[in-house]
Amino acid sequence: MATKIIKAMTNDSHNYSFKTIFVVSLLIIALSVISYYLFDLKLAIHFHDSQIQWLYNIAELFSLIAKFPICLFLPFILFVFLPKKKVLDWKNYLFLFVCFFITSSVCWTLKVFLGRYRPEAYFEEGLYGFTLSGTRDHSQHSMPSGHASVIATFLTALALIEPKFAWLFYGLSFILSFARIIVGAHYLSDILLSWLIGFLIAVLSPES
User: Fold this and answer.
1) Which end of the chain has fewer CB atoms at under 10 Å, N or C?
2) How confident is the model at residue 5 (pLDDT cuts 50, 70, 90)?
3) pLDDT tens for residues 159-179?
4) What is the DSSP secondary-structure string of 30-96?
5) Distance between CA atoms of residues 35 and 199, nearest Å
């Protein structure tokens, strides 16, 4: 099953079938639920207690790349992998902007509505879970991750524009997103669902 999904997402087609999108979505949601109950705290505690400085420094660098407004330059840097015709096509830039705008709006709305405690809240006050309080408290904005969702939507969009390098874009998306767990900013389930948000917005946007 996993092999079929990977092949479907890295083939030369510009669009994904409804079946592929549905299966990917279902799989990530299931993994997120499992992670919430079994892996989120274990991973957070592991990276919090391990104190591996070099790994933390690398993760901080990756987090910086994914941070607004630096992340806005990422698609343009990665256009080096695209044929000149696609680089000069203004529709590709419009597509990326639409993806960014929608993803940012959706993420901010969900952050405020869900009110999930960040890992720092667990280590400082023992708080874990959701408040559903509509708060603007930064410590309760763990889900979804703005960094991970924006990176996911940008790189998924690039994978749609140039399917030949889809494996590279998705791999980079995973690495940059996972860095947010290492630095203690988010839980694994936050990252998984954030990636799904970015992915869905890119594949369902009109220009895709």
Assistant:
1) N
2) very low
3) 888 888 888 889 989 998 999
4) HHHHHHHHHTHHHHHHHHHHH--HHHHHHHHHHHHHTSTTGGGGHHHHHGGGS-HHHHS-HHHHHHH
5) 19
